[in-house]
Amino acid sequence: MATSVFVMAHRPYDKPDDPAYRTLFVGAAGKEDIEKGCLRDDRGEDNISDLNPYFSELTGIYWLFKNYKGQENIGACHYRRYFCDRALRVLSGERLDQLLDEYDLITSKNIRTEISYRDSYARAHNVADLDAVGETIARLYPDYSRAFEEVMNGRDQYFGNLFCMPRPLFDEYCQWMFTILLETMPAIDMTGYNAYQQRVYGFLTENLPMVFIRARGLKNYESNIVCTGEKAETREVLLAVRELLLEKRTAKAKSMLQEILKERPEVALPTSDPRASLELTKQILFIKDHQEQTGADSYFARENDLKALIDHYKECYLALSHLSDHEEVGADLTKRLIDDGFDLFEANVILSNDPSERFGREKLDPSNIIKGIGAICKK
Predict the structure, then answer these.
(1) What's the whole-number average pLDDT of the chain?
(2) CA of 313: how far to CAs of 109, 160, 267, 337, 346, in Å?
(3) pLDDT > 70? residue 379
(4) Over the range 170-183, which residues count as b (16 or more CB within 10 Å of their CB) and which as e?
(5) What whole-number distance in Å separates Cα of residue 270 and Cα of residue 268?
(6) Torsion angles phi and psi, residue 56, rounded to 5
(7) Which H/E stretch holds residue 83?
């Protein structure tokens, strides 16, 4: 059976070159089309487009559930996030068809966390909202309650409300999910929530597919996800930091970034910032501010171009990774670091905020680095 993947988008984007992918403009109420002839979540008598600030991509999923008549397999992805193969190529409609011949549904790949899903949610959001969902499930769908508790207490999670499944299963899932949300809404008090936290219903449903799968004993294919670029908000933050650095206002850039990450932590997530630019920028600003304040003669203190600073940071990290693996740093890189004033403070900041996982490699070994660090630092 053919598959249609609906790309939830709120702005123009580069669509995959495959007829299986169709744009669905979410939060469309009162706005001009983002693409000629695109589907919109504000069409039809039964839609919740005006709730997009609180439901995010769910307004598009709701529209499909209530208004789209096609009976093919239904997929939902985002304008920057797509199911992909190991080579990070977006999965074709044909490949999705093949997978759904073998599996009940397709989800994003499971992410294992160091703490329970409930504790992870509590770090980023108001966990009382998640508990309210559990209470609704226990009341309306007691057969799903055990699976919900297992998922909450476990360390497995999906993200993004990304899935693909046959139309009958899609309808069953949506009926279950939206009934839970609508019944839970009176218990959720968003007083004091900023614009990010107000997207609460999108956050609350990210791991509900796992609950649904476990309770029903479904067989799902966990697909890799490719992010085709930085989140627009992430790019805007980086641009603001870049401009402040060019104006030699390091302290202002540092405080601004700290405040943004406090209010909008999602802009630094791997799914929003696949190149880890914000994570590196946060460390760079910490180093640069310190080196400027102490009068250090180092590249971090002298340079004000953000891209150049990120490239330099990566060279410093590369040298530390060589030491970590008992490898020679190399004469050229060693000379550059020494000439650039690389010192123990800078090395310690990088080591203490080890970015290895974002670079897809094993964590740095401090003991090995300590043995050879003197060879690459300014005397």
Answers:
(1) 92
(2) 30, 31, 21, 10, 9
(3) no
(4) bbebbebbbebbeb
(5) 6
(6) 50, -130
(7) strand 81-84
